[in-house]
Amino acid sequence: MHEYDAQTAVTATGASTYAAELSDGWHVGGGINGGYLLAIIGRAISEHLPAKPHPLSVSAYYLSASVAGPAEVALDVRRDGGSMATVAADLRQGDATRITALATYGDLGRLGDDVRTTAEEPHLPPVEECVPSSMAPEEVRRVAPLMQRFDMRFHPDHVGWAVGEPGRTGVISAWFKLADGREPDPVSLLLAVDALPPVTFDLGMPGWAPTLELTAHVRAVPAPGWLKVRHATRNVAGGMFEEDCEVWDSAGRLVAQSRQLARQPR
Amino acid sequence: MHEYDAQTAVTATGASTYAAELSDGWHVGGGINGGYLLAIIGRAISEHLPAKPHPLSVSAYYLSASVAGPAEVALDVRRDGGSMATVAADLRQGDATRITALATYGDLGRLGDDVRTTAEEPHLPPVEECVPSSMAPEEVRRVAPLMQRFDMRFHPDHVGWAVGEPGRTGVISAWFKLADGREPDPVSLLLAVDALPPVTFDLGMPGWAPTLELTAHVRAVPAPGWLKVRHATRNVAGGMFEEDCEVWDSAGRLVAQSRQLARQPR
User: Cβ of B82 under 8 Å from any chain A Cβ?
Assistant: First the structure.
């Protein structure tokens, strides 16, 4: 079993509750990575709705920072009819709700096969010409064990921040894989949209950028292989910024789009 | 009192429930306009949290089509601490939930005054050179009484669909005001992001495009006057499309960003 599958596993503990164990391998900055938590919630919903296994849209509101250890996912199916179901989900640890979310699930395999995407696939140099996350300094990898879960190869134009020369374009892009070799699926895309460093790094603002809200739309089942992930921000104001993310699969399909609202690093 | 204020009014009926009356003047296509419903929900939350009156982020999942008549907004404050509060909200009619939503509220006036927006304000010709929504044919105005609530002046390049010549760029932009002269505020921006015709009109796909999910971020208190509203889509696939919306105020500030996932018109 891949590490990803073991560490996002959920076990039914009641009619609509699931137990999970948050691994400290996904720690970063002030808590456990939000994308990892979203994948756990996403997996619980997927197991709860076997005929509608794929997230189409997930909106998560982050209420408090998670810690490694036991957690519970509590689900409430708000509508289930036709080809889609909408579910409310809470991720809790003890009395504290960490994330409250709404999600609409369906079966991506049963959607139409029309594709009229006008979005352009981000350009990335070949994988071997990009900058691997494994080159991060030892002290970075110590405070962000999360980085060891991924194989990320950054666009050379978007890693100036790592050497004190941020590009200041508000863009970070990279090739992305799970380090354990686990291929992407619709639920793991919820992780992929919140895995790269905050795009504010590229604006010369290092540090943790807590997410207030993140909505992801999963638009297709990803093909196996490397994903291209691109983060961009256009509106840094009032101490907050939006971070848009696109994920493209190895077949050149735009498989996920997300936007989050986050606080600027202090 | 302005029509907008009268028709979005809510009355407390319990510790966390509010009554509203959905006006049929906001009818369009298969139901009542989603932006109007969101403004009613937004107003209930605002009245419930007087110290945090402004939506920062609202995510709405549309479960069933609303009809004119009585409705109830039921709120559940999920977290209230520091400068923000997160609330779950349902809009119901009888036993049917129409919309379930999550929202984080705060006070936009207390955010920092830094603005580092790199987004470019959309270009629109002067108001008097744009195409007024009042020029819509009588039959359109009959099926969409909604249009009479707004004064919209469309970019001439983005109304080809009205004469059978859609621009096919996936963009619609317009000057926007409430027809009753009511100035914009943070809650009414929730209406502004879902007021224009679906961007699929510009792709030669007329017809109602039901929203599955819409998330709006309100980033600043809008200045009085005309708003610029721009809708764009980049990923029409699998029978669905995303619609991104930006709202700019008369002072040239990007005051709201939203994205919705909707079904293509049939």
Answer: no
